[in-house]
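Lab notebook, page 48
Experiment: co-folding of the full assembly
Goal: obtain a model of how the components sit together before planning crosslinking
Operator: M.T.
Materials (sequences as entered):
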Amino acid sequence: MRSIFFSSLFALAAVAAISSSPAHAGSVNNTNGGGNINTSSGAFSEADQSAVTLGGIALGNSHVNTMGGNNRNSSPGAFSFANQSTTTIGGSAFGRGRVNTFGGNNFNSSPGFASSANQSTLTLGGTASGHGRSNTFGGMNTNFAGGAFSSANQQVATVGGTAGRHSLSNVSGGANFNGATGFGSTANQQVFTGGQ
Amino acid sequence: MLRVSLTALGLLAALPAVAQDRGGLAMRNSPIAELGQIEANTNSGCPLSSTSVTVGVNQATAFGSSAQQRLGTFGGGGSFGGGGGGSSSCRPLVSTQVVAGANLALGNGSSAGQTITARGPSGVLATNTFTRGYNAGFGASSSATQRLTNLTGR
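Observation: model returned without errors.
Model output:
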């Protein structure tokens, strides 16, 4: 929960930076901060990973593609601990812009005995207004506590852009999996997917 | 152990290549306007393209060993100001920024820490930002900590 709090503060700061930056015409903004791997294989081992990616800004007939998903976090070692935090913030597209935001397909598992795996993924796309198009996808996440007495916690927040008048906004956040199959295990999953 | 290191190196080497491949500028709806911006950048002496690739590999292999790595790359231009000698008003047309890190704690009781920070300007026409990390603690009672920060000026 604390990581989500700090991620939200970072997102607010980024939005403030966007609103105060000068405009320029017709650009492409690709921000890719996902695809990270964090694992603690050894017994009593610890793996801690943090990745923050902040893209630029694109205005006027622009394309903004933000990819912060496809992260893998696992603690297969007995009594191991794996913690992963990924924050990806893309730019904005105004005026017939197109915003694609992808923050889903994250995998978090704690197959080791008495292991713990925590994963936090925040993906914030830009804004498409005025005949713009915004596509947001944050689903298909997996959280799995397979080891005996293990614990798996997953938090995925995917926020797409604004689609104003004459704009189109598609939001998808389904097809998630949360399971605790190990003896005495615990699995917590929180998935938020939304436009603005 | 060697296989893991080679695999991580291979993944990290592939990322800049992909970034370069996707980092070009595609003409879209208004090629005249884009050509005008190219000419404006050329006349003002601003760079047409800026590419920054920061790759780090850090590993602690021996029993009880410790390996710490800190990398920083700061490009000029953009709202971040003159870290690399560029002015805040002079931005490249196309900016590509890559950060990739592999951090491995392989030995028993080993500790591996890696911090990579990169800041660069945003492009006038295109900005491509890639971040990819691989962090693993293989040894018993090992500790692997990785921090990757990739920021583009606004």
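Interpretation: The helical segments of chain A are 2-19.
Next step: discuss with group before ordering constructs.
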